[in-house]
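[09:14] KT: can someone run the structure on this one? pasting the chain below
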Amino acid sequence: MTDVYKIGGKVIDDPASLEKFCRDFAALQGPRILVHGGGVAASRMQQKLGIEPVMVEGRRITDEPTLKIVTMVYAGWCNRHICALLQANGCNAIGMAGCDASVIRADRRSPSAEGPSKGIDFGFVGDVTAGSVNVPMLEKLLALGLVPVLCPINHDGRGVLLNTNADTVAQSVASALKANLHCCFEQRGVLQEDGVLLKSIDSAGYEELKRKGTVWGGMIPKIENCLTALRGGAPGARILSYEEIGDPGAGTVIGL
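[09:31] RB: done, structure tokens below
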């Protein structure tokens, strides 16, 4: 069984946290894929270059200058640095953007006709689904004992790079490969109001927690991505701390 792990920007931005995660990830057994973001570093680079990041519903507006920056950060520094750390720990990682071996194609997002983002042009932002994933290529790489490390820069097959949300990439890859999805970040998982960890929740429980305001902000897309992966064929999904990836009982198991 293949496992897909997603790691977020805050962990990537902290050297000690990233080094620990890479050590623990390298120690895992079995075929696995790592999907990473890097939004904190990308925003900082934008600001250094005099470009203020613009986010709508957690998604980055990606004009042409921003596309060049996020490509340099995600497919350049972040991806190469993670691969180097994994190689140092005995994990034979291969870093990839979607255009490499055409592993992931994306469709450029059209302005939404409704909702908070109605009429907004996200620029060079690409949407992906399980059907966007080159499953035979990833399976070949896994069969060779390689560990793909995927950044969220994909392509449209016509020479255009597109910026995709890393959580969506991870969910789509897990669905396509029928793999377990592990969403790793700073918290132990989904927490109740008193800080107690919820060991499992299903879609009905999630809706109730959202209604009560127990889950909000960035936790909502994490849970929804897990649910989407499960509906797409992933056999399992959980949200957990990046520090506990070696513990199969850690985190919050998401169910339908």
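[09:33] KT: thanks! The chain has a mean pLDDT of 94.
[09:34] RB: yep, looked fine to me
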